[in-house]
Design a protein that fits this description.
eight-stranded mixed beta sheet, 58 strands, 15% strand
C-alpha cells in the first residue's frame, strides 16, 4: 500500500458513503459510530471520536475530502493575507526559505526542538501524500481529552529555524500550505511525530482536538518502526458493506507498545494499516469495512456524551440523556483469531503470543520505562488496567507487562445511564461519578481474598447498586409523579471530590494488610507507574496484590489506573486475556525453546528422598524378573484363573438394548410441533405439503471420537431405515455421508449436500448443527486468516451461506448444551423457534416416568451443601497449596509447573500404592484415593472391570507431556497390564494397547478380530487414565465407568459461563432411580464418613447421619450413597498413612477402592450411558456394559430386598465405627465390612455395580470451585452471572441479574436483551441486513444439559418428521364395500359388451333400473323396494346410534397421487398461481356480480351473486367490460379440444373453507376448467379469503340455514337458465341451440382422487377376465365421458365409489343403470322438469335419482371409473347442530324431542323444521309405522319423495306424475302411506290404486295446519283412514321458524 496514495480519494463511492455516514450520525440520537481502525488498534478509550467534535477527526476528514476534490477541478484559490515577498520559495512541501519540510525527507535529520515544544505533522491539501514537520508549543495543543489547549498558536519552522510564529495563518503562509479557506490549526495540525527505536521520525497518533461528545485519546508510537510492517495487501479482502456501529471515516494511529518480534503475523496484520496510510484508499476501504478480527482490546461499552455537539447537530437538548443504554455498545474489540476462552471479567485484550503485545491506550507526557527483568524479579507479568483519564506512554521492556482497557470499559459502561431512567430527565439522574467509581473499586479490591480474582461483572453490579441507592428517591419520585418540565436537583449528598479521593482510597486500603497499595501522583500517572515499577523491582510489593495509582492534579478530572501485581491474580488475569489459539502458541513456544526442561532441576528438589526418576529406576531394578508387589501378584493370579476357568461372569456388565426414553420422545415431538408451526404460519416459509421424504446432515466439531460416536448413534437409531435412506446392505461408509466433521475437508462434502438439496426440491433436508456453540467466528475473520488457518469461520461459511439461507427445503437445527452465544440481540433464531429440554418434574410430580435420573451441574452443586454426606464437587487443598507455593516461579512457567506437579502427584501416588509407602507424603490424599481405586477396582471383579479416571489437560502439547510422564512411571512400576493410559485429543482417535483391546472384546462379546474401540463409550469397564486434551470438549461422551473427573488443570480461560459449564458437563451422568431409599441411607453413611476423613477440603465438616434425612429432600443423594465400596478401604487409605503401604491392598483396602469403583457412574444403560440419549450405546454387541438396572437378571436385586430389614441398625453401627476410624483405621475398616453383611462385600465385587448409582467425583481448581458453589444475591451460582460466552459482550452494565426462578425460555430472553455479539461473531452483521426482524424462518435451536440425550432426541425427531411427511402425503379415504349386494336386481339383462369404452344406448335402455342403494354411506337408510327383491328381515343389520355413524365408518390410508385434489394447506410452485397466492402477485382482485332469474315454483325472482376473480372473467359474458353479468360461457357439443374440460364443475360446500378439496389443479392435470364453489352468504368472506382465485356462487341469505338440497336445486336451476341464455346468445352467432353443451358436474367437496380399472378380458363376452386399478386424473375421466357418442341421451352419469374390497363382479360389467352419488355429471337440458327438493338435508341425491328414473330418463354409472372420498371430520352435514332455542343448556337434544304436539309447552329447537323432520323419521319412524318395522314384504308407500325411515323399514317409491315409470304395485300390500308436501298431481283416485294392510298407518306432512286439513279433505283420506285429534304433531320449532305439521292415522 505504501504512502503513494495518501490523501487522494480515488472513488466517489467512498466520498458518498462517508458523507452519508456523517449525515446519518448528525441526525441520529444514538451513539456516533466509531472509526473502524480505532477499534482495531487502539485501546478502548480512544475509540469514540465524535463525528462532529471529539477529535474532530471525522469533520477534518470530511473537509480534507473537500480540499482533495477541489484540487482535481483546478488550482485552489490560495487564502492569503498579504502578497508573498519577492523571491521567496512557493514550492509545496518547502518553507518560504526553501527548506524541505516533508517528513520523508528529514525524518533522520537532527532537529532543534525547544523545551515545551513537540514535533507535529501538518497536512497540506496540495500534498496529500506527505506530512510537513513543524514544532509547536504543546500548551497550544490539546490534552488527551481534547481539552485545555490554549487559544492561539506558537510554533517554529524546523526547516529554516525561524521561530516565534504567533498566528497560525502566518505560519501556514510560511510553510506554503496554500489554503482555500481560513487556516485553522485544528484542521491542519494532524499528527504527533515520534522517534522510533532506530531514531527515525515517524507519524504518530492523531492530535485529539476538543470534541463535543466523545473523547478520543491518541498515543504517539514511541517505540515503533514503520519498517517493521510490510504492506498489507491481503487485508483488502473485506466485505464491501459498511458495518453499522463502525465509522467509515479514518484510520487512527495506534501505538504498538513493544516489539512484536515473536509474532511476525501480528506485525503484518497491524502495521501498514496503522502507520502507512491514514489516507490511503485501501486503508480507507478497510476502515469502511468490518476489519474486526485483528488482535485488539475488547469490550468497549457505551460511552456517554460529554457535552452538546456542534451547532449543526440539531435537536439536542441539555436534558437529553447522555447515552442510550440498551443498545449495543458501539464496538467491542474482538479477540485475535478465535473467540473462546476468555474471562468474562476480562474480555480479551489483543494479546498475541508470548510477546503479549498490548496497546496502552492513550498516552501523554513523558514515557514510562518498564524495567528490564521485571518478569524474573516479580515472577509474574503485572496486568495494568487503565482507569480514568490519561494514560502515559510505556516504553522499554514491554513484554513484561500486560495493559488492558477492560476497567476503562467497565467505568464507561457504568456511566451510561440506563434507557429506562431517561424519562426522569438528564439533570435528575446523574451517572455515578468517576471519583465514586474509583473509590468503590478500591473497596472491592480490599475485600477480595488472597485466592480470589477480580471480576468485572462484580464491579458492574457494585456500581449499579450504588447508583440505584444514590438515586432511589428521585427514581421513586418520578415513578409516582408525572414528569415535570424542570426536574428538581438531585439530593444533596456530598459527592467525593478529586482532592479527597487519594486520601479516602488510602484510608480504605489501610485495613487490608497491604494487599492494596495506593500511590498518589502530583503531576501525572507516569510518576505513579514509575514508582510502582521501582517498588516492584525493590521487592517492596511482595505482599501487595493490587496497586491503585491516582492522579488528581487536574481540576476537571482524575487520571487513574490499577495494576494487578499479585502473582496468582496476575497469572490468572493475563491468561484469561489469551484466546485458546494464543494460549497454545505460548505453550508450544515454551516447549520449543526448552523452558520446560529447565524445571526438571527445580522438581528434583521437591522430593527429599531423591529425584522421583531415580527412585523409579531403583524400584524397577529391585523388582525386575519377579514381581513382588502384592498388587501385581494378585492381578497375575487373577489373570491365570481367567484362562483356566474360561470366561468369568460379571453380572454388572450388561448391555442394554437401544431405546428411546420418554424425555427424548417428548423433545422430538416438541421439535416436530415447531416445524409444523413454521409451516402453518402465513409466511409460507416452509411448505411441508410439498415434501415427500426427509434427508439430513449432522455437522459436528472436528473431533474423531465425537465423529465415531455420532456415526454409531445414527447406525443404531434406525433412523436411516425409517427415512428410507438405508439400502439393502448398510455399510459404515454409507452412514458416514450423513455426518460431517467440520474440518478442512468439510467444504466438499457440504457442497455435495447443497447440490443434493437443490436437485431434490421435494425432499426436506434437516441440517443439524450439533455442539452449535463451538465455532461462531464470522467468515469475515476467515478472510483475514485464510492462509494461516482455513478452519476459522467454517461454520459461518457453510451453515450461514446464502444457499442454505434461501433454500426452501433446508431446515437448520442448532443443538447445544450452551446456547447463550446464539441468544443475542442479533441472533438469527427466533425465540419462538427455541426448544428447551423439559424439566423432569413440575410441582414435585415427575412428568415422565424414567428409571434413570439425570445428574447435572445443579445436582453436583447441591451435593456440596451441608447435610449432604459426600460432596461430588471438591477441590484439592493440598494441591492448591503447592500450586500457590510454586507461584513464585515466573508466570510463563506456571502452567508447566501445574502439569508437572499434577504428574508428580500421580507418579508419587502410583508409587505409594505399588509398594513405596514413603512417597505418600509427596502426593495429596485426593490423588492417592484416585490411584488406589484405579488399581484396586479390577481386583474386585472376576472379569477385571475397572474404573476410568479423566485427567483434563486442555493444552494438547502439555497433554502429550503428561501422557509420556505417566506412561514412563507406569512402565517403571511394571503396571502396564493393570491400567491403560489413553491420550484423548480431538484430532486423533482412541489408541488402546492390544492387551486391553482383547479384554474389551471379551467383555463385549465381539468376534471381529480387527475391532478397535473408537469412542470413549466403548471403554466401558476398562481401568484407565484418560488424558483428555483440547481447549474445548467437543461433545465426547464418557462411559459409565468414569469415576473421577480431575479438572485441576483447567486454565482460567474457563471463567466464562459456557466454558465452565462445558468442563463440568464432562461429569454429567444418569443415576439409577430404582434403588430403595433406606438402602441408600445406610451406605451413604458408610462411605461418606470415609470420604470425609479422606478429603482434605472437607475436614471441618461433621459427618453425622443426616444422609437419611437429607435424602428425602433431594433424590439425588440417595443415588450417590449407593456405593457399596468398601468404605473401609477408603478410610484406611486416607485416615492412616500406614494403610497406604503395600499391606493396604489386603482385604480392607480392596473395598474402598471398590467404593471409588462405584465410580462408574450410573451411566445407566449404555444408551443413556453417560448421556442418555447422547450416549446411545454404540453397538449393541460392544457397547459399554450397563449397570444393574431393572432388566438385569443378576443376583443383586434379591439381596436388595432381603437386606432392608437390618438397614437402620447397619447405618448406625457404621456411623459409630467411622467416628473412630482416625485412631484405628485398620480395625475399623475390618469391622465395618461385616457390619454391612456379606451382601455388601459381594456387591462391591465389581466397580460397575455402583456405576449406575453414583455420579463421578469432580476435582476443580479452588478458583473455579468457589465460583461454582458460591451464589449471588439471586440465589444462582456465581458462575451463571458470568459473561455467557467469550464471543459476546454485555449490552449494558445496567442489566438485572439472572434470577433463580427463570426458566430456560426466560434466560434466553434475558440474553437476547442484554448481550450483543462481538464483531468477530458470525451474527454480528445480522441486523445490518436492513430487516428489523432478522430471524431466519427455518432455523431452530434445541438446548438441553450436557449428556442428557439430545442426539437421541433429534434422531427421533427425524423419524417422526419423516412419518409426518408420509402422513401428509396420505389421506384417509372411505374404504367400505358396497351394501346390499345380495339384493341386487337379478334380471335377464346384463350389459355384456365388457370392453365397450362407452355404453351402447340401445343395449343400455334394456337394462332395468336398480332401485337398491349400494353406497355404504346409506347403510342406515331405508331400502327401496323394486320388482325383484325378496328381503328377509335378518338381512338388514341393527341400526346404529347416530353418533356412531361417522366414527365407525371404515377408512384406508392412501398415498396422494400426483392427480389428487387438495385443500388449502397444499402449496407448490405449480399451483401457486392457480391458488392466487403467488408471491409475485397481489391477492387476486375479484368483483361481485348479481345474477337474477325467476322460478315459478318459488313464486319469486331468485337473486344469486357471483364473485369472479379478474383471472376468471373470460369464462363469463358481460354486457360490456366490467358491466352487467349476462351469462356463463358454455362450449359446443362439437368441441374436441383436449386442453379443457367442457362441463362446468359446481361444488356445494359449508364449513370447509380450509379442508374442502377445491384445488383441482393437479386433479385436472393442469387443464383449463371452470370450477364454481357454491357457498352460503354468511360464509362468503371466509371462503374468499382462503380461495381468492376461485369463482364463488353465493346463495341468497334465505338459504343460510338450508341443506344441500337447496344448493343442488339452485345449481341445477341456474345452469338450466344459463343454458337458455347461452342458446339465445349463440343462436345470434348462427349456432343451433342443441349444439350448446348441456352438462354440468356436481361434485362433493371431499372427492380426493379418481381411478380407472384396466380389464384384460379373454374375449368379448367371456366371463373370464383379470383387472387392475390405477390412479388417473379427473381430466382423463371427464374427457373420456364427455367424448361418449350418445352422451346427450343420458340424464345422469356417475362413477363407482372406490373400495379396496371391490369384487370382480362389480367391475365386470362396465356400466350400470343405478343410483349415482358424490360425483355426478348432470344433463340440465333433459332434466329440465325434474327438480332437486330444495328443502332436503339428507338423502337428497337418492330422492333426485328416483325422480329422474321415474321421469323415464337414463342414469348410467361407469363402473370402470371410481372416486375416492376423503374423510373430513369438520363441516358438511355435521355443521348442523340441533340445540335448544331458549336455554343455554348445551346438553344434546335427542331425536325423540324433535317433534311435539301442537300448542304444547315443549322446548323449541334452533334448527330448520325440515332437518328435524328428517332426523326424527330416520331414528323414530317406527312410532309412525309400527307395522312396517322389519316387515320388508310390506313396505311403506312413499309418494313423490324418498325419505329415510331408518334401516328397519322399507319404502316403495312411486311418482304421481303422468307417464312416469313406477314399479308394479298391484300385488303389494303396504304397511303404511307417507304423503310429504304432496302437490296437485296426487289425487284421491291415484291413492285408491294402492292396497294397505289392515292397521297400516298414514302420515301426512304439510307446511301448516290449514293445508294439512285441506289435504285430508282433498284426498278423501277420511274414507279409508281413521284420525284422532291427538295424532297431530309438529316439528319442535317456534312459529316464526315455520314448523312442519303432520297427521297420523290408521287404515280402517
Amino acid at each position: 500500500m505504501g504512502n503513494s496514495y495518501a490523501g487522494q480519494l480515488k472513488t466517489t463511492r467512498f466520498e458518498e458513503v462517508l458523507h452519508n455516514s456523517i449525515e446519518a450520525s448528525l441526525r441520529s440520537n444514538n451513539l456516533v459510530p466509531r472509526p473502524i481502525f480505532s477499534q482495531l488498534y487502539l485501546e478502548a478509550e480512544q475509540q469514540l471520536a465524535a463525528l462532529e467534535g471529539g477529535s474532530r477527526v471525522d469533520n477534518e476528514e470530511e473537509e480534507e475530502e473537500g480540499e482533495g476534490g477541489l484540487e482535481t477541478n483546478g488550482p485552489p484559490n490560495p487564502f492569503q493575507l498579504h502578497p508573498l515577498p519577492e523571491g521567496c520559495c512557493t514550492t509545496d512541501g518547502f518553507c518560504q526559505a526553501g527548506k524541505d519540510l516533508r517528513l520523508v525527507s528529514i525524518s533522520n535529520e537532527p532537529m532543534d526542538v525547544p523545551a515545551g515544544f513537540l514535533l507535529v505533522g501538518v497536512k497540506s491539501p496540495s500534498l496529500p501524500d506527505h506530512l510537513l514537520v513543524c514544532a509547536v508549543d504543546k500548551r497550544f495543543l490539546p490534552d488527551d481529552n481534547g481539552h485545555n489547549a490554549l487559544l492561539g498558536f506558537s510554533g517554529n519552522c524546523v526547516g529554516c529555524g525561524k521561530k516565534g510564529f504567533c498566528y497560525f495563518t502566518e505560519f501556514s503562509n510560511h510553510i506554503n500550505l496554500k489554503l482555500t479557506t481560513q487556516p485553522k490549526k485544528q484542521k491542519h495540525l494532524k499528527y504527533y511525530l515520534v522517534r522510533n527505536a532506530q531514531g527515525t521520525l515517524t507519524k504518530g497518533p492523531l492530535i485529539c482536538w476538543k470534541g463535543s461528545e466523545f473523547r478520543s485519546r491518541q498515543i504517539p508510537a514511541s517505540t515503533c518502526s514503520s519498517s517493521l510492517f510490510p504492506a498489507l495487501e491481503s487485508t483488502a479482502a473485506f466485505p464491501s458493506e459498511p458495518v453499522p456501529g463502525t465509522n467509515p471515516s479514518i484510520l487512527m494511529g495506534a501505538q504498538q507498545a513493544g516489539p512484536a518480534s515473536d509474532h511476525p503475523s501480528l506485525n503484518a496484520a497491524m502495521g501498514p494499516a496503522v502507520f502507512n496510510g491514514k489516507d490511503s484508499p485501501k486503508c480507507q476501504q478497510l476502515a469502511k469495512n468490518n476489519l474486526l478480527a485483528l488482535p485488539r482490546p475488547s469490550a468497549l461499552g457505551i460511552l456517554s456524551n460529554s457535552g452538546p455537539p456542534k451547532k449543526r447537530h440539531k435537536g439536542w437538548s441539555p436534558e437529553s440523556p447522555s447515552a442510550p443504554d440498551g443498545g449495543c455498545p458501539q464496538g467491542g474489540g474482538n479477540r485475535a483469531k478465535y473467540e473462546s476462552a476468555g474471562m468474562s471479567c476480562v474480555p480479551q485484550v489483543g494479546l498475541v503470543g508470548p510477546a503479549s503485545v498490548t496497546f496502552p491506550v492513550v498516552a501523554s507526557g513523558e514515557p514510562v520505562s518498564v524495567p528490564d527483568n521485571l518478569l524474573k524479579i516479580c515472577k509474574a507479568k503485572p496486568v495494568i488496567f487503565k482507569g480514568h483519564g490519561n494514560f502515559p506512554y510505556l516504553c522499554g521492556n514491554l513484554n513484561d507487562v500486560v495493559v488492558s482497557p477492560l476497567l476503562y470499559t467497565c467505568y464507561q459502561n457504568s456511566q451510561s445511564v440506563s434507557r429506562a431512567y431517561e424519562q426522569y430527565g438528564a439533570s435528575a439522574i446523574q451517572p455515578i461519578s468517576e471519583e465514586m467509581q474509583l473509590l468503590l473499586t478500591v473497596y472491592y479490591l480490599v475485600q477480595l481474598a488472597a485466592d480470589q480474582v477480580p471480576l468485572m461483572e462484580d464491579l458492574e453490579q457494585i456500581f449499579l447498586r450504588s447508583w440505584r441507592e444514590s438515586h432511589l428517591t428521585e427514581i421513586r419520585q418520578y415513578q409516582q409523579a408525572p414528569p415535570q418540565p424542570f426536574p428538581p436537583a438531585p439530593s444533596a449528598a456530598a459527592p467525593v471530590t478529586s482532592a479527597q479521593l487519594p486520601w479516602l482510597a488510602s484510608l480504605a486500603a489501610s485495613s487490608c494488610n497491604d494487599s492494596v497499595h495506593v500511590i498518589e501522583c502530583a503531576y501525572s500517572l507516569a510518576e505513579g507507574l514509575s514508582e510502582m515499577f521501582r517498588l516492584l523491582v525493590e521487592g517492596k510489593l511482595a505482599k501487595t496484590n493490587y496497586v491503585v495509582i491516582i492522579c488528581a492534579c487536574r481540576s476537571a478530572a482524575i487520571d487513574s489506573c490499577i495494576a494487578v501485581t499479585g502473582k496468582y491474580q496476575a497469572r490468572i488475569l493475563s491468561e484469561s486475556l489469551l484466546t485458546p489459539a494464543e494460549y497454545q502458541k505460548e505453550v508450544n513456544y515454551e516447549l520449543v525453546t526448552g523452558k520446560v526442561d529447565s524445571l526438571g532441576a527445580f522438581f528434583s528438589t521437591l522430593c527429599p528422598e531423591g529425584d522421583i526418576d531415580i527412585l523409579l529406576d531403583k524400584f524397577h531394578q529391585e523388582n525386575q524378573g519377579h514381581i513382588s508387589s502384592s498388587l501385581a501378584a494378585s492381578s497375575v493370579t487373577k489373570a491365570a484363573s481367567l484362562d483356566v476357568s474360561g470366561t468369568p461372569v460379571c453380572t454388572s456388565y450388561n448391555l442394554e438394548p437401544h431405546s428411546i426414553r420418554p424425555f427424548q420422545l417428548a423433545v422430538a415431538q416438541k421439535l416436530l410441533s415447531h416445524v409444523c408451526s413454521i409451516a402453518d404460519s402465513s409466511t409460507q416459509n416452509l411448505d411441508l405439503g410439498s415434501f415427500e421424504k426427509v434427508d439430513f446432515l449432522i455437522c459436528i466439531p472436528p473431533s474423531e471420537v465425537t465423529y465415531q460416536q455420532t456415526l454409531l448413534h445414527v447406525w443404531h437409531s434406525g433412523v436411516l431405515l425409517e427415512l428410507g435412506l438405508k439400502k439393502e446392505h448398510m455399510t459404515k461408509q454409507r452412514v458416514e455421508q450423513y455426518v460431517l466433521k467440520l474440518d478442512t475437508e468439510a467444504q466438499t462434502k457440504f457442497k455435495a449436500f447443497l447440490q443434493n438439496s437443490f436437485q431434490n426440491p421435494h425432499t426436506l433436508f434437516v441440517l443439524i448443527h450439533d455442539h452449535a456453540h463451538w465455532d461462531l467466528v464470522s467468515s469475515t475473520v476467515h478472510n483475514l486468516y485464510s492462509q494461516s488457518d482455513p478452519s476459522v469461520g467454517l461454520v459461518d461459511r457453510l451453515l450461514n451461506c446464502r444457499e442454505v439461507k434461501e433454500a426452501p427445503n433446508i431446515v437448520t437445527l442448532h443443538v447445544t448444551s450452551f446456547p447463550y452465544a446464539l441468544q443475542t440481540q442479533h441472533t438469527l433464531i427466533s425465540p419462538y423457534n427455541e426448544i428447551h429440554w423439559p424439566a423432569s418434574c413440575s410441582n414435585g410430580v415427575d412428568l415422565y416416568h424414567e428409571n434413570k435420573k439425570y445428574f447435572g451441574l445443579s445436582e453436583f452443586i447441591e451435593s456440596t451443601l451441608s447435610g449432604h454426606s459426600l460432596p461430588l464437587l471438591r477441590y484439592d487443598s493440598s494441591f492448591e497449596a503447592m500450586v500457590t507455593a510454586l507461584g513464585k516461579r515466573p508466570r510463563d512457567e506456571v502452567r508447566h509447573i501445574l502439569l508437572k506437579l499434577c504428574s508428580k502427584h500421580y507418579a508419587a501416588a502410583l508409587m505409594a500404592v505399588s509398594g513405596l509407602p514413603q512417597m505418600k507424603n509427596y502426593t495429596s490424599v485426593e490423588t492417592l484415593e484416585i490411584t488406589q481405586n484405579l488399581l484396586n477396582s479390577p481386583k474386585q471383579c472376576p472379569c477385571g472391570h475397572g474404573l476410568m479416571v479423566l485427567l483434563r489437560v486442555p493444552c494438547s502439547p502439555l497433554a502429550v507431556v503428561a501422557y509420556e510422564r505417566l506412561a514412563h512411571v507406569r512402565a517403571r512400576l511394571a503396571l502396564e497390564e493393570h491400567f491403560e493410559i489413553i491420550l484423548g485429543s480431538p484430532s486423533s482417535g482412541v489408541t488402546v494397547g492390544k492387551h486391553f483391546v482383547k479384554q474389551l472384546r471379551m467383555w463385549q462379546k465381539i468376534e471381529d478380530v480387527e475391532w478397535r474401540p473408537q469412542t470413549y463409550l466403548e471403554l466401558e469397564g476398562l481401568p484407565c487414565i484418560l488424558i483428555f486434551s483440547g481447549m474445548d470438549p467437543h461433545g465426547e461422551s464418557l462411559p459409565r465407568s468414569l469415576r473421577y473427573c480431575d479438572l485441576r488443570l483447567i486454565n482460567s480461560s474457563c471463567l466464562v459461563r459456557t466454558a465452565l459449564e462445558q468442563e463440568l458437563g464432562l461429569a454429567a451422568y444418569f443415576v439409577s432411580n430404582e434403588v430403595p431409599l433406606e438402602k441408600g441411607a445406610r451406605n451413604e453413611a458408610l462411605e461418606s464418613d470415609a470420604e470425609k476423613l479422606s478429603s482434605t477440603d472437607n475436614e471441618d465438616e461433621e459427618l453425622g447421619t443426616e444422609g437419611s434425612t437429607s435424602e428425602k429432600r433431594s433424590p439425588m443423594k440417595r443415588e450417590r450413597s449407593r456405593s457399596h465400596d468398601s468404605a473401609s478401604s477408603s478410610l484406611s487409605s486416607k485416615a492412616s498413612g500406614s494403610a497406604l503401604g503395600g499391606e493396604s491392598s489386603a482385604q480392607p483396602t480392596a473395598l474402598p477402592q471398590g467404593e471409588h469403583a462405584r465410580s462408574p457412574q450410573p451411566r445407566g444403560p449404555a444408551e443413556e450411558g453417560r448421556a442418555p440419549g447422547e450416549k446411545q450405546r454404540p453397538r449393541a454387541s460392544q457397547g459399554p456394559p450397563s449397570a444393574i438396572s431393572r432388566h438385569s437378571p443378576g443376583p443383586t436385586p434379591q439381596p436388595d430386598c432381603s437386606l432392608r430389614t437390618g438397614q437402620r441398625s447397619v447405618q448406625v453401627s457404621v456411623t459409630s465405627s467411622c467416628s473412630q476410624l482416625s485412631s484405628s483405621s485398620g480395625s475399623s475398616s475390618s469391622s465395618v465390612a461385616p457390619a454391612a453383611g456379606t451382601w455388601v462385600l459381594q456387591a462391591s465385587q465389581c466397580s460397575l455395580t455402583k456405576a449406575c448409582r453414583q455420579p463421578p467425583i469432580v476435582f476443580l481448581p479452588k478458583l473455579v470451585y468457589d465460583m461454582v458453589v458460591s451464589t449471588d444475591s439471586s440465589g444462582l451460582p456465581k458462575a451463571a452471572s458470568l459473561l455467557p460466552s467469550p464471543s459476546v459482550m454485555w449490552a449494558s452494565s445496567f442489566r438485572p441479574l439472572l434470577s433463580k426462578t427463570m426458566t430456560s425460555t426466560e434466560q434466553s430472553l434475558y440474553y437476547r436483551q442484554w448481550t450483543v455479539p462481538r464483531p468477530s461473531h458470525m451474527d454480528y452483521g445480522n441486523r445490518a441486513e436492513g430487516r428489523v426482524d432478522g430471524f431466519h424462518p427455518r432455523r431452530l435451536l434445541l438446548s438441553g444439559p450436557p449428556q442428557i440425550g439430545k442426539t437421541g432426541a433429534y434422531l427421533q425427531f427425524l423419524s417422526v418428521l419423516s412419518r409426518m411427511l408420509v402422513r401428509l402425503t396420505e389421506v384417509d379415504v372411505y374404504d367400505e364395500e358396497e351394501i346390499n349386494i345380495n339384493l341386487r336386481e337379478e334380471s335377464d339383462w346384463h350389459y355384456l359388451q365388457l370392453s365397450d369404452p362407452w355404453p351402447d344406448l340401445e343395449l343400455f335402455k334394456k337394462l332395468p333400473f336398480d332401485y337398491i342403494i349400494h353406497d355404504p354411506k346409506y347403510e342406515d337408510a331405508s331400502l327401496i323396494c323394486s320388482h325383484y327383491q325378496g328381503i328377509k328381515s335378518e338381512d338388514r343389520g341393527m341400526s346404529r346410534k347416530p353418533e356412531d355413524l361417522y366414527v365407525r365408518r371404515q377408512t384406508a390410508r392412501m398415498r396422494l397421487s400426483k392427480y389428487a385434489a387438495y385443500n388449502t394447506y397444499h402449496h407448490c410452485e405449480q399451483c401457486h398461481q392457480y391458488m392466487g397466492f403467488h408471491p409475485r402477485y397481489q391477492l387476486y382482485e375479484s368483483t361481485l356480480h348479481a345474477f337474477a332469474f325467476s322460478y315459478s315454483m318459488l313464486g319469486e325472482e331468485i337473486q344469486l351473486h357471483f364473485i369472479i376473480p379478474k383471472s376468471k372473467e373470460h369464462h363469463f359474458v358481460f354486457s360490456q367490460p366490467g358491466g352487467q353479468l349476462e351469462s356463463m360461457r358454455l362450449p359446443l357439443v362439437t368441441d374436441k379440444s383436449h386442453e379443457y374440460i367442457k362441463s362446468p364443475t359446481f361444488t356445494p360446500t359449508t364449513g370447509r373453507h380450509e379442508h374442502g378439496l377445491f384445488n383441482l389443479y393437479h386433479a385436472m392435470d393442469g387443464a383449463s376448467h371452470l370450477h364454481v364453489l357454491v357457498v352460503k352468504e354468511y360464509e362468503m368472506a371466509i371462503y374468499k379469503k382462503y380461495w381468492p382465485n376461485h369463482i364463488m356462487l353465493v346463495l341468497p341469505s334465505i338459504f343460510n340455514s338450508a341443506g344441500v338440497g337447496a344448493a343442488h336445486f339452485l345449481i341445477k336451476e341456474l345452469s338450466y337458465h344459463n343454458l337458455e341464455l347461452e342458446r339465445n346468445r349463440q343462436e345470434e352467432l348462427g349456432i343451433k341451440p342443441q349444439d350448446i353443451w348441456p352438462f354440468i358436474v356436481i361434485s362433493d367437496d371431499s372427492c380426493v382422487m379418481w381411478n380407472v380399472v384396466d380389464v384384460n378380458s379373454a374375449g368379448e363376452r367371456s366371463r373370464e377376465f383379470s383387472w387392475s386399478e390405477r390412479n388417473v386424473s379427473l381430466k382423463h375421466i371427464m374427457q373420456h365421458i364427455e367424448a361418449a357418442p350418445d352422451i346427450m341421451h343420458y340424464a345422469l352419469l356417475g362413477l363407482r365409489k372406490w373400495s379396496s374390497k371391490t369384487r370382480a363382479s362389480e367391475v365386470q360389467e362396465p356400466f350400470s343403470r343405478c343410483h349415482v352419488h358424490n360425483f355426478i355429471i348432470l344433463n340440465v337440458d333433459l332434466t329440465q322438469n325434474v327438480q332437486y327438493n330444495q328443502n332436503r338435508f339428507l338423502c337428497d341425491d337418492v330422492d333426485f335419482n328416483l325422480r329422474v328414473h321415474s321421469a323415464g330418463l337414463l342414469l348410467c354409472r361407469f363402473n370402470r371409473f371410481s372416486v375416492m372420498k376423503k374423510q373430513i371430520v369438520v363441516g358438511g352435514h355435521r355443521s348442523f347442530h340441533i340445540t335448544s332455542k331458549v336455554s343455554d343448556n348445551s346438553a344434546a337434544v335427542v331425536p325423540a324431542q324433535y317433534i311435539c304436539a301442537p300448542d304444547s309447552k315443549h322446548t323449541f329447537l334452533a334448527a330448520p323444521a325440515q332437518l328435524l323432520l328428517e332426523k326424527f323419521l330416520q331414528h323414530h319412524s317406527h312410532l309412525f309405522f309400527p307395522l312396517s318395522l322389519k316387515n320388508h314384504d310390506h313396505p311403506v308407500l312413499s309418494v313423490d319423495c324418498y325419505l329415510n325411515l331408518g334401516s328397519q323399514i322399507s319404502v316403495c317409491y312411486v311418482s304421481s306424475r303422468p307417464h312416469s315409470l313406477n314399479i308394479s304395485c298391484s300385488d303389494l300390500l303396504f304397511s303404511g302411506l307417507l304423503l310429504y308436501l304432496c302437490d296437485s298431481f296426487v289425487g284421491a283416485s291415484f291413492l285408491k290404486k294402492f292396497h294397505f294392510l289392515k292397521g297400516a298407518t298414514l302420515c301426512v306432512i304439510c307446511q301448516d295446519r290449514s293445508s294439512l286439513r285441506q289435504t285430508v279433505v282433498r284426498l278423501e283420506l277420511e274414507d279409508e283412514w281413521q284420525f284422532r285429534l291427538r295424532d297431530e304433531f309438529q316439528t319442535a320449532n317456534a312459529r316464526e321458524d315455520r314448523p312442519l305439521f303432520f297427521l297420523t292415522g290408521r287404515h280402517i
